[in-house]
Amino acid sequence: MKLYKKEGNIIQILSFPDETVEKGDYLLIQDNYVRKALIVQVIDVQFANIPGIFEELLRSLPDGGEQVKGEDFDPLEIAPHITYIQDARLLRCKIRATMENEILNPNSSWLPSRSKSTIKKMSIPTLLKLAKVDGKLPIILGGTKDSMLLTIDASSLDGRLNIITGKKETGKSHLSKLLMLNLVGYGATVVVFDLNGEYINLGVTSDGKRNGYYNKIHVLTPSKNFKVALKQLHLRVLLNILVHALHLPGTSTREFRHMWQSLKERDNLTLHELGEVIRNWRCNNHVRDALFSRYYSLVNSGFFTDNVAEAMLLEERLFRAKKEGGAIVINLRNTSSMDRQIVVEYVLGKLVELLTNWKLKAVFLFAEEAHIYLRETYWDDIITRMRHFGIFTTFITNQPNTIRENIYRQADNIFLLNFTNEHDLEAVSRAARADAETVKSIAQDLPPRHCLVLGKAVKDFPMVVKIKALDIKTMGETRLFFKDMN
Amino acid sequence: MQTVQIGSQPITLKRKTEHTVVAAVDTSSMKIGETPKGMLITVRGACVWKQRRQYRYLRFGPFIFHVTDENKRDVYNALRGGFSVSPYEHNNNSSPSLLQMPTRIASFLERWQHTMLSKTVTDGLILFDGSLTSGVADTSTQQMKKILDEARKRGNIVLAFSKMTNLRSNGYLITDVLLGHKPPYLLQIAGLKPKPPILLLGDVYVARFTKGNYSFRLDIDKEVPITCQIEAVEKLLGNDLFSQSYPETLRLAHIFCTFTANEVIAMQRFIVHKFDLKIINRPDMHKLLFGPFGKGENAS
Ligand SMILES: Nc1ncnc2c1ncn2[C@@H]1O[C@H](COP(=O)(O)OP(=O)(O)OP(=O)(O)O)[C@@H](O)[C@H]1O
Ligand SMILES: [Mg+2]
Fold first, then answer.
1. Which residue of B128, B196, B233, B253 is most buried, as measured by CB atoms within 10 A?
2. A359 and A276 co-located in one domain
3. Which residue, B104, B293, B90, B105, is CA-closest to B195?
4. Do A78 and B60 touch (CB under 8 A)?
């Protein structure tokens, strides 16, 4: 490999076919005279722009486009040299750091010598060590291309905002499961909004046996084993549900507050009594109708109960998770969209409440396709207020443009799986931790289950990893129309 | 510059599709660099033939020579021996200048390939690049005659195409004279009297085979009766593809031997790595872009 050009923080390197370098690889450009080295990452591999190659290709095609067969008498054996040149590559590399005395700094303003520098591949473990991507709480994400392990530290997710995104079926949920199980393993409290009910079997191995997480995975299915009693509910949380999930207008909301107060004073906060109060309250009929329709939505959701004993599970499981680590999986699979919003409002309200009172220390929240159930105002909340309280969110989505731009800007870690769509990549490129060129060039070529990790977890050295497998029971078989026919 | 007469009536041609082998030869040479002592020359030759609708090629080279003022005579004589070229008639004792070496070496290879084809093809059409003029530079009349004789013995007819010509008629280059006549046709050229020792071994025509303003000088072995010459051209029309009046077989031969910038770089690398020769003056790669047709009569 030879240093060819430097423009800004892009270095171009000429490489020959016997030097197998791929996108995502790290190279070390060592200039021994100044005792410094540049660490660069290959973000694109192109054909070297050899003069006349286009003419050469054109000329090698006869009329009709068929290859002409023949023999070469080539006593000097020049032909291999010719193909060697033909296959020369130009590596576009992004400067990631300068290394001086084993210390890395982001400076890229110096220029290594073109004639004297040596260029060689840098293995991921070497880089990880130099970059000090290590710690006491390792999470093995999987293998790198040179069959080394990529390990990040759980603390790099702590207090952080993360995004897992990629095309459909590329392995986002799988990675999310891997991360949350590792967090649980280190004793963290995790809450998952499980839209498709695919996290419910995390405690079971693929052959149906219980695994080490069995007692730490707590599946809460709304209106089944997960209900709330009005008595436990803060008015604020219920109002959030009424206003945001059920769109109750302002005047009716005011009336509702009064009703709630009167019930509370009489210690009569039951569904039945609430219905009675609405029926008998002295108010405008429009208001009454509005309240009734919301009341029936609450009742019909099946999520509310008057039996307090039936409604202790969330808190109880959260406390258990706090003690020994655990994941509360909120199974939203068969929940209608309105009920989903009710449940999410409730859970988030509850979390804030418990965190505010320091009944919980911190919670890692994994939210699959959050735009489906997260109301507008929560997005900002999540990165400001909730983060402050100790809710550390990981968004998982295959539609990157459903995540707000400010979330991208604030994201600390981005786990990017394959995307081919330019618009999707455009959205991800807005992340402060990503540079558009790296994202676009590498993500488009990622095979399924391969992930480009960006951000603090890798000390801003973007790395590609093949996410390792998990021995867990996956969601029931996909329902297919043609399955039994062949 | 020579002034000649163009036949007043074009010879209209009909395509004759009876199967005939078409074979073509071309060579190419160039200087790929200079060393402190001399120059590096590379040559390559290609034969292409069309048989039953398929083109095939046989390529020789690239051969690389390091020619210096000291060794040029030896190189030259060795090649002459190697390609069994008979000593040529004049300037017998001197070897060419360094600058002439590339084309000289190439023409050794070219004549050798001509000889080879003339001895291996039967009842075919053999296409040369250039003209059938002999007695210039390395084209010895004796050798050229031998090639044509050999070819004829096997029922082959040699046709030489050249793009560049300096023959003029009424002040116009013969290839620029366009008649309102529908191609394909030939125009016979008369009155061509080369200065001795240069000899003309062919009858000369202007050939225009396709629409568009392209025509070539075409020399056909003059020992072949005119009717057979014309029939040969008609068979060529029926057996080869043409673009811009130029036969595809010959175009391919040209393509297969010319060097591309990429190949030149590869050879320079090869020399530097293998022989540790220091190349001081490299040719400009951007000038290495060739036109689609052969070198023409002046170059070979
Ligand atoms: N690294 C991996 N090793 C083994 N299996 C994997 C891996 N990643 C994903 N899978 C499997 O591939 C399938 C798709 O993965 P997953 O459900 O995680 O994709 P997804 O990106 O979340 O898809 P969707 O867009 O539908 O949500 C699943 O069956 C999963 O078990
Ligand atoms: Mg998924």
1. B253
2. no
3. B90
4. no
- Both A110 and A178 in a single domain? no
- The residue range of the domain holding B55 is 2-259
In this prediction, the answer to ipTM > 0.85 reads no
Using an 8 Å CB-CB cutoff, list chain A residues near B261. Answer: 50-53, 56
**Contacting residues of A for B262, CB less than 8 Å apart:** 50-53, 56, 82, 85-86
- Position B266 in a domain: no
State how many domains chain B has.
Answer: 1
Question: Do the Cβ atoms of B179 and B187 come closer than 8 Å?
Answer: yes
Domain housing A239: 230-305
A73–B contact, CB cutoff 8 A: yes
Contacts of B54 in chain A (CB under 8 A): 69
B242 — contact with chain A (CB < 8 Å)? Answer: no
Long-range contact pairs involving A432-439 (C-beta distance under 8 Å, separation at least 24): A432/A408, A433/A460, A434/A462, A435/A94, A437/A43, A437/A94, A438/A41, A438/A43, A438/A94, A438/A462
Q: And the tokens for B87?
A: 């000593």
Note whether A339 and A204 are same-domain residues.
yes
Q: How many domains does chain A have?
A: 3
Phi/psi at A249 (5° precision): -70, 165
Q: Quick check: pTM over 0.95? A: no
Nearest Cα neighbor of A335 from A307, A300, A311, A309 is: A300
Q: What angle do CA A234, A238, A239 make, to 5 degrees?
A: 110
The predicted-structure confidence for A163-213, as pLDDT tens digits, reads as follows 999 999 999 999 999 999 999 999 999 999 999 999 999 999 988 899 999
Residue B88 identity: Y
Closest CA to A470 of A180, A272, A250: A180
State the nearest Cα–Cα gap between B181 and chain A, in angstroms. Answer: 27
Q: Give yes or no for residue A400 CB within 6 A of ligand 1.
A: no
- Asked if the model's pLDDT at residue B20 lies above 90, the reply is yes
Handedness of CA A366, A371, A373, A374 (dihedral sign): positive
Question: Per-residue confidence at B86, pLDDT binned at 50, 70, 90?
Answer: low
Q: Is A431 helix (H, G, I), strand (E, B) or coil?
A: coil
Distance set, CA B212 to CA B170, B180, B231 (Å): 22, 12, 23
Residue to mutate among B44, B260, B282, with most A CBs inside 10 A, is B260
- Same domain as A267, residue A402: no
Claim to verify: residue A443 and residue A348 sit in the same structural domain = yes
Task: Find which of B262, B263, B287, B289 to mutate to test the A interface (most A CBs within 10 Å of its CB).
Answer: B262
Contact: B48, A63; criterion CB under 8 Å: no
Domain boundary among A305, A330, A349: A305
Rounded (10°) CA dihedral B133, B134, B139, B144 = 100
Note whether residue A139 is domain-resident. no
| 8 A C-beta contact, residue A457 and residue A141 | no
Find the A333 Cα to ligand 2 centroid distance in Å.
13
| CATH number for the domain harbouring residue B84 | 3.30.2170
Q: Are residues A160 and A278 in the same domain?
A: no
Q: Output the pLDDT for position A471.
A: 86
> Within a domain: residue A138?
no
Task: Give me the DSSP letters along B69-138.
Answer: TTTHHHHHHHHHHHTTPPPPSSSTTPPPPGGGHHHHHHHHHHHHHHHHHHHH--S-EEEEES--EESSTT
A328 pairs with which residues across the strands? A191, A218
Residue type, A193: F
Residues in chain A: 486
Which of A140, A144, A174, A471 has the most ligand 1 atoms within 8 A of CB, as the residue to mutate? Answer: A174
pLDDT tens for residues A49-88? 777 677 667 666 655 666 788 899 999 888 888 888 888 8
Q: Which of A163, A167, A169, A415 to mutate to test the pocket of ligand 1 (most atoms within 8 A of CB)?
A: A169
Beta-bridge partner residues of B31: B41
- Domain presence at residue B53: yes
